[in-house]
Amino acid sequence: QVQLVESGGGLVQAGGSLRLSCAASGRTFSNYAMGWFRQAPGKEREFVAAITWSGPSTYYADSVKGRFTILSNNAKNTVYLQMNSLRPEDTATYYCAARWDRNYSPNSNAYDYWGQGTQVTVSS
Q: What's the angle, vertex CA 19, arms to CA 15 and CA 21, rounded to 5?
């Protein structure tokens, strides 16, 4: 059984930083792509960033490019999302997801496993 556990969310002022972690267990994840998504109240879940274990290759939504960085530690089966220069519009619940495919996808329906989510709140 695949498990994804996120941590690192919290309350931060605009311009601040947070680092989210996603610890994966239950499989060998070298054949997976990992993604971060977020969902704000009343809005649809949206793609934030993704990484493939092989390479690795990284992908970002335009709204976070240059501010967020996705990283992986293969030995720990952990993926991180380093978020800098946070804005109030980044406020959302952030979810980690895993896709049984070596290629990433910005479509949430393409992911097979999801974490429980971690709340990020950015105050102005």
A: 155
| Strand partners of residue 24 | 4
pLDDT single digits (tens) 81-111: 999 999 999 999 999 999 988 889 999 999 9
Is residue 79 classed exposed, middle or buried when 0-12, 13-18 and 19+ CB atoms within 10 A define those classes?
Answer: buried
Alpha-carbon span 27 to 13, nearest angstrom: 37
**Minimum mean pLDDT range among 1-10, 13-22, 48-57:** 48-57
- Does residue 68 contact residue 82 with C-beta atoms inside 8 Å? yes
User: DSSP assignment, residue 40?
Assistant: -
Angstrom distances, CA of residue 50 to CA of 11, 13, 14, 28:
23, 25, 24, 18
Pick from 108, 120, 116: nearest CA to 10: 120
